[in-house]
Amino acid sequence: MTFTDAKSVVLGYLKAIDERDPDAIQATLWEDAEFRIPGDHPLAGNWVGLDEILNKFMLPLMDLFSTDVPYTIEISQVIAEGDTVVLDCVARAAARSGEPYEANIVSVFSIQDGRIKAMREFFDTQYFVRTLFGSE
To answer: Contact at 8 Å (CB) between 4 and 15?
Structure first.
């Protein structure tokens, strides 16, 4: 997968998530990429490398959502400068319980040579835990 600029890399990553295509997601990430997820919950922490990002973060995350309601990402803003991309978006879905899920998320991506090297997310972790894990 080839991209010409940092913003295109992130948009390609979002498209791969929207299509739930693990191969396309993997193609947007460096083998040693690092995702930082805030909070005090089972998916919080620093996930380093494709195996950890896909198998210990992304797949368990998707298991928290209902398969009856699509997981969508509505982009509010994408700001790119050099190899840094800031994404402001709203993720919508439903928890396994059927409860609606709507989270405002800001993600900061570091791009290196056409792929994601690092990503940090910022969101309401209490809402995340309450809605998806059923506790605070």
So the answer is: no
pTM of the predicted model, to two decimals? Answer: 0.91
Q: 36: closest CA among 124, 102, 126, 108?
A: 108
Q: Taking all residues of the chain, what is their mean pLDDT, rounded to a whole number?
A: 92
Cα–Cα distance for residue pair 40/125, rounded to 1 Å: 8
**pLDDT tens for residues 27-45?**
999 999 999 999 999 999 9
CB 33 within 8 A of CB 117: yes
Band (pLDDT 50/70/90 cuts) for residue 119 is very high
Whole-number Å distance between alpha carbons of 132 and 98: 10
CB 127 within 8 A of CB 105: no
- Euclidean distance between CA atoms 17 and 32, whole angstroms: 19
